[in-house]
Structures are given as C-alpha cells and as structure tokens.
Amino acid sequence: MAASRAEEIVLEAVRSDLTPEPCATQSLRRPLVRLLPRAAASQANWRALPRPAVSALFLHLPVLDLFRLGHLFTPRWLEVWRGDPFEVHDAQFARLPIPRSRVADAIGTVLDMYLAAAEEDEDVEGGTYGAVGHGRVKSFRVESTEWRAEHAARWCAALQRGGAFEVVLFNRGFSGDPPVLAPVPRGLRECVSLRVLHLGFFTVEAGELDALARAIQLGLHGCACRPGVVEGVVAGCRQLEKLWVHDGSLEHVAVRSSPQLWRLSMLRTASRSLTVDDAPLLQVIFPGSAATLRISRLPMLRRLLCLDLANTSLEIKGDQVDSRPPPRIGCWQVPDYRQQDVRPKMRSVVMLRLIVDYAELGAMTPLAVEETLRRFPRVSSLFIQRKKDVTEAEGLASITDPHYLDLFRGVECVGRTLQCITLLNFQGGKIEMALAKAILATAKALGTIVLTHDDDRPGIADALLEADQALDQSPRNCNNPLLPLRIVHQTMSGFEYNARLG
C-alpha cells in the first residue's frame, strides 16, 4: 500500500468514523489569540480559581501547555490533572521540542506519570482502581506517530492498568515509508475494558478480538482480516453497536444474530459475499464491493447506501433482485405488477444510494433502477451515483431527447413516497437524464432534484444549464400542482461535508 493511500485512509477515518478529538487537541486547531496583559495583572489571581474551574481549564490545555503552566494555577496541579479521566492524543505531542522518533517515548512517559500518580492515591485511599475518575484512561489516540513493538507493549500494559475506554491505534510505518502490516499487540487484545477500538494497518487473525466482550464500536481500517474475524467479533461482542471494516479484502462475510448492531460499514472493502441476517436494530448498511449481498430479518433497516448495481447481486429474504432485467417488448413496455408482484420487499428502507455504471448497463440502466426500486416501496430519498465518465456512446443530454413517461408506473415508492433525488457526480449524460425524467414523470411527491457535480470538470456549466431546461420542460404527475420542482446544484465537496455531518 502506497504511503499516500495510507494517509487518505487515516484522514477518512478521522473525519468520518472516529469520535470527536479531545478538547485539548481542538484547542491546537484554533488560531492563536494574543492578549495584552492588564497593568495590575498578577499570577496570584490565577491561584484564586476554584478547583472545578481549574479542572475544566486543564481539559483544554495540550500536554506541553499543561506541564508548563499547570503549577501557576495550583501547587497541586498534578492532583487536579489526574482527578479527571485522561485523554491522550499524539497530535498534542507534535509541538514538543524533541525528535519525531522520540514522540512515542514521550507518550508512554506521560501515560505512566498519570497512572503512577493515580496508583499512589489508590494505595493511600484504598479506592477501586479503574473506576470513573482517578486512573481512568478515557481515550488513547495514536494516529500519525512512528512507533515500534516495544512502544506498543508499554502503552498496552498501561492501558490495561488504566481501564481504557477508547483506543485508536494506526500502524503508520517509519520515515514516510508505507505501513507494513503488523500483528495486533497482545496487550490490546487482552484489554477487556475497551468499549471503542479502531485499528489501522494490522493483520487480524480469527479469534483475536473475540475477548473484547464489552466493545460497542470496532473499526478495522486498511487491515488484513483473516476468514472468521467478522463472524467471531459479532458472536463475541454482543454489545457491539457499530462495525467498520474499511479498505480491505474479505472472502465470505456473515453478520448474524447481532442484537445491538445498528451500523455496518464496509466501504472500499471487496468481498465475495456479505450476508446480514437477524439484526433487529440495524439501521444503516454500507455493503462495499460485495459480489453478493444477502439481507433478511432487518426490521429497522433505514438506509442502504453505496449499492453497486452492475457488480453486486442483491438478495432480499432469499429472492434475488434482477439488476439486469431482459429487454421487454418495445423496450420500455411496463408490466403490471399491481396484482402479481408478491416478491419480498424491504419496507423499512427510506434512503437508498445506488452506484450506476452507465457505460456498462447502457440503455438498460433505467430498467435496472426500476427493478431495484420495486423492492423498496418506502424510499423517500434516492441517490444515484455515476461511476464513470460520460462515454462517446452515451453522449450528452439535450432538451430534444425523448421522454420515457410510463417507465416507473407501478413502482410504489415513486408513486407515493419519493421526495428527493440526488444525482451524484452528475455530468449531463443522456442516460442519467433519461432516468431522471422518467422518474419525474411518475413521481407524485417529488419536490427536489439535486445535481451534485465537480466544479473543475470542463463543460459542467453547460451540462447543468441543459439539465435545468430539460427538467423544467419534462412533464410531471404531481399530487399537488402547486408544489414547485426545486433543482439544486451542489458541489461534490459540499455533499461529502454534509454527509459527514449527517
């Protein structure tokens, strides 16, 4: 794996998957503010602050500032510091005047100092070590620091003693070299107090993470997962709520009987098959590049995102959805499914995101989308993402292109619940415009079409203008004739930002 690709994986995980950074790290992101001292200002006034105020202030001080300034607020600043759960983030050590190779040692030193002081208090007070407050490691995040096996052993031993709640550990390699996959540190596998764990660029063997029975979030980013890893985690971690397996490669994956899981994400992960069954609270699935996706007994599923129509075979309750339907007589003739369509459906899904290869599916793309939508009768938000650029065979759309008025007649979600369509990576191709107009002609509740595009693409302004004119002139079958059609232009960067917030 190239170093640049590894950096992208880490940044994507930090932006989208991890919990917010500690307050002290966020302080580093803010611009510096320099205030002129008051004429009568005195450090003695700082000592007058009550202990809760000093404690709250210390939570916002990066490590370097804490050790430089802590004694100015109270001579017992170490006691105040260790009175709160500890959050350590390697980003706070970047400002230390030490070589980059020594940062890992500095992290271990600060961690040991915090825990050693707490252990002294335990000996004196006879408290329960690892309870909330003294000695509790709330968060330990190492995302960009070079470290070796001996560093990991030292950290993990301390994390076990401190009853760590969250650990984020990325194996980044040395001196800009791409990361070399390493085994998961043994001490981390045995840290049974963990509730949140994110690992990057490790080799994960089957059964290694099964002992983390209290985990509620688990993320594997750029890891080599052996067969059985996901199944073992799901079976062993009965409290698991979120599972990420990103930027990897798997064989056959089965997620079954997971009582608490509500988010499953396998973005940029290739697998031969993904089976998701009997997850009563599951609400979100990102299936990744699964050749076959089988879903059943998911009563709370709300969002099925990034489903590749050309490369993923979808099975709902054992019945396969034909994403490549055979051409019909007259090409656009619509069969009457109102009486005979008793095939299994996912009625709980309200948001569906399809990835479409217009070049591969060609003129059959609208039929493939129609066949898929028939299985999701309650969709209100539909995202259709273009996979490849417009080919010469497809060509660009124009207002003179024909309309396929009856293509989606009888599709329940189009006729009743569909309110918004978003065309991702919009380029103005003939087929994607034909698809949008066909849905618009039948959708009775549709009020918004969002064209999400790349501003730097040549000719995109002309394509958007043509699309606006074509959609404005396209016939509609709306329940409320006073409901205007909103056509919104959005950049891809803006869409990605809003998606991360949501």
From TrEMBL:
- A Pfam family of the record is LRR_At5g56370
Please give the start and end residues of each transmembrane region. Answer: none
Q: What top-level branch of life does the organism fall under? A: Eukaryota
Which ranges of the sequence are coiled-coil?
A: none
InterPro entries this protein is in?
Answer: F-box_dom-containing, LRR_FXL15/At3g58940/PEG3-like
Q: Which residues form the F-box/LRR-repeat protein 15/At3g58940/PEG3-like LRR domain?
A: 153-382
The protein, known as: F-box/LRR-repeat protein 15/At3g58940/PEG3-like LRR domain-containing protein
